[in-house]
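STRUCTURE REQUEST FORM
Protein name: Glycosyl hydrolase family 28
Source organism: Hydrotalea sandarakina
Requested output: C-alpha cells
Priority: standard
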Amino acid sequence: MKSMKLICLAFLYLIMQCSLKAQSNNISDAIFNVKHYGAFGNGEHLDHIAINKAIDACAAAGGGTVFIPAGKYLCGSIHLKSNVHIYLSSGAVIVGANPELNVYDTAEAFPYTQYQDGGHTYFHNSLIWGEDLHDISITGSGMIDGGAITREDNEAGGNILQGSIGKADKAIALKNCKRVFIRDVTIYHGGHFAILLTGCNWVTLDNLLIDTNRDGIDIDACANVTVNNCKVNSPNDDAICPKASYALNKPVTTENVIITNCTVSAFKEGTLLDGTCIPAAVGWSGGRIKFGTESNGGFKNCIVSNCIFRYCDGLALEEVDGGEMNNIVVDNIVMDNVHHYPIYITLGNRNRGPLATTHTGTIKNIYISNVRILNADTLSGIQITGVPNQPVENIELRNITIQYKGGGSKYSAQRVFPELGKGYPEPYLLGVTPAYGLFLRNVKQMRLTNIQLQTIKPDERPVIYANNVLGLQIDGLTAPLVKGVKPAVFHQVKEISIQNAPVLQLDKVQ
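Status: completed
Returned output:
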C-alpha cells in the first residue's frame, strides 16, 4: 500500500514538472500594450474592446504578451486566444462592468442543461473566457475584480437553451483548453466561479490569491492539473473543487490532479484580501476542498497534500452521479475551526446524467494520512459511507489527530442516522451522527492506524459507530469516553481486528 502511494505521488509530481516546463516554453517575446489599442485604464471608460483588439493583434502576429499597465480597466467580456499571454502589472485591475451596459457575451446554446447547474453549462457569459485554445496564460501581480458579475445562475430556472439576461457569472471560464498557466494574480468577487476549468488539459494554477463570494477554483472534467501555493477564501461555497459533470455532453474523468501547498478558508468576503480574516456566519458549507458533487465522469489519481483549512468545512470526497472515484491520496493536512464535519467520504445515488450513463458509482483506494484537526464541530465525526448494495472499498486513515468541540448528547447517540440515497451529499442535511469520532456504514476493507481523538467538552456519544462493514482493522486508537457510554456500536461488522486500542475493549462494545 505504501509503495502504491509513493508511486502515485512520484508520477503526479513528474506531471507537474512537465506541465510547468511546457507552459514556460510557449511565451513569445512580442509585447502588445493595451494603451496602444485605446484602453484608458481610468475606471470610467469601457476598456474590454481595446483589450480584445490587443489580444487579436497578438494572436495574429503568432503570439506574445498583452501588457496591461497599472490602472483600473472597466470591462465586459474579454476573449482569450491561443499563444497569448496576458500580463497584469502591479496596480492593474480589471473590473467587471455593470450588466445594464450590455457588455457581456450571450451564453451559448447547450441541449443537455438538466445534468448540471447553469454555471457549469455556459462559459461565454463570463468576464474572461476562452474555448478550444492552447498555450494561454494570465500572470502578474495585478487583480481581477469581478465588480458587478453575479454569484447566481443567470438562467431562468437555472438553465437556458440559448441567450442570457446579459449578466456574467464567472471571472475566468476556460473550456477545452490545453497548456494553461495562471500565476500570481489576485481575484476578488469572482461570481459563481472565480476560475472554472472544464475539459482542460495540462493546467497550472500557481500562487493565486482568491477572495470570492462563491466557488473559488472548479476543475471539471480535466486532466493533468496542478494547483500550487494558492490561497482561496470562499465563505458561501467551495474553495477548490474538482468535479466531473456532463458539461461536455459526455462523462469525462477528472484525473491526475495535484492540489498542494494551498490554504482554504471561509472568512467574510474581502477579509482575506485585507488581512483581517473576519469569521463569516456559518451556514451553507463553505471554504473547503471538495471532490463533487458533480461526478458523472468520476475521479482518478488525484493528490491533496500540504494544505491548510482555516475556519471552514473539512475535506469532502463525494461520488453520487455514477462515476468511479479511485486512487485518491490525501497527506499532511492541518485544519482549525472546522465546520460541520472534518472528513466526509460518501457514495450516493443522485445519478445526475443521462439514464444510459448513470448507475451506482464506486469509491475505492482512498488513502488519508498525517492529518491534524483542531476545534472540529460537534455535529459529525468522520463520515465514511457507501450504499447498501455498493460499499466504499479499501479506505485507509493513518496518523489522524482530531480535537472535537464535544458536547454531544446521549439522545444523539440513539438517533437513527438516515441513508443518503438520492439526496444531496451534505453532512449537515443529515443531522448529528450517533458517534462523535467515526461513523462508518456500507464499507469494505477499512483500516484505521494511529487515530488520536480528543474532546474539549465531554461527549455522551460512542467513539465509533459501524454498520455493514466487512474487514475493519484498527491498530492504535485513543479517545476519551464518558462513564457509562459504550465505546463503540457495531452492527453487521465482520472480520474485525483491533490492536493497541484499550478504549475499544470488545466486551464493552455493543
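Reviewer notes: The chain has five helices and 31 strands. The longest strand covers residues 324-347.
Form closed.
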